[in-house]
Amino acid sequence: MIERINVLALDWLTSAQALAVLGTQPQTLYANVSRGRIRAKKDPDDPRRSLYSGDDVRRLADRSPGRRKAESVASDAIRWGEPILKTTLSTVEHGRLFYRGVDAVRLAETATLEDVAALLWQVGAVRLKGEASGDGEPLERAFVALGRRAARDLPSLGRGPQVLRHEAQSVAATMISAMVGGTEGLVHERAAAAWGRPEAADVVRRAMVLLADHELNASAFAARVAISTGSALSAAALAGLGALTGPLHGGAWAGVAALMELVERDGAEAAVRNWLGQGRPLPTFGHRLYPDGDIRAAALMAAFELPPAFAALREAGERIVGERPNVDFAMAALTTAHGLPERAPILIFAMARCVGWLAHALEQIERGELIRPRAHYIGQKAGEPGGLS
Predict the structure, then answer these.
(1) I want to staple 226 with a disulfide (CB 3.0 to 4.6 A). Which of 37, 194, 236, 363 is the partner?
(2) Are 112 and 188 spatial neighbours (Cβ–Cβ below 8 Å)?
(3) Which residues form a coiled coil (predicted)?
(4) Catalytic residues
């Protein structure tokens, strides 16, 4: 029997235990860790060794690649599994994020969102300037502006790549201008000015570069599905924005707000223990694609001083849970550190990721394929009790 190491309701296995369950060679175990399929962390009793998530190890062990049906393979792929679409845009390898082969962290040192757009869209200089439109909150204005365009813009089907790349700039400018307005300056400068925090412009720039794309995430996939039907680029961006707003995606930063209230009241140690004691995973800590810590979070947090409450939460969370803060934590901390609007994290995320959505849309158009998976029906069948007759 494999001995389990219990840490806060999660079980962790040594490499020998994990290999015994998987029945594979060490290099296969390490490859699964680097691809985010198995979570790993340093052994607190021996920093030279690593421990591996028992849940992840057993999930992979239960698979039999040579005998699985195609439907099972596809189903597993959708849940953080094997890649299901080929892309040349971005990838996470060995804990590092690359945009078309360029290290995103290094790019964030000097590049702007416009520079990343030019790289991902494969065009020359990019200008993302447009007119502010409508009333209401920034996110609401963005939905309305994209919705109006989606209703009137031409379909992407049958149109040339240069025309579509030019239109991508226009679509991104529409969404960004709806959120922060302004016609002069780079996007990060306009955002910082709109929020009355011009001194935050550089760190906002870094955040936007680090968030521009992230493999085939949920919102990028939504954008690709939409554009695969031949819809307008604005419709693809609208699909991406809709997916981004969910609490399991771009809205994840909000999960730390309730936790921070406990930190301010009870202290970080007590807050983390109380949270975990209620059977809730600690929000904004850990990321499946970064077993050794979200490199985007580390790069962003190095650019500003963490507020004391966030610094205390970071220390307590890392020590008690064994996971490092992810980029959602960093965005929440950035917002507090610079006094940005409460919803600045989702706005920065959306403006940055719009560049990625449109890059995925342009790439999918070149593929010319409709994304249309089959469903595995598990409901009642004709002739069964309560079914059709």
Answers:
(1) 236
(2) yes
(3) none
(4) 249, 287, 328
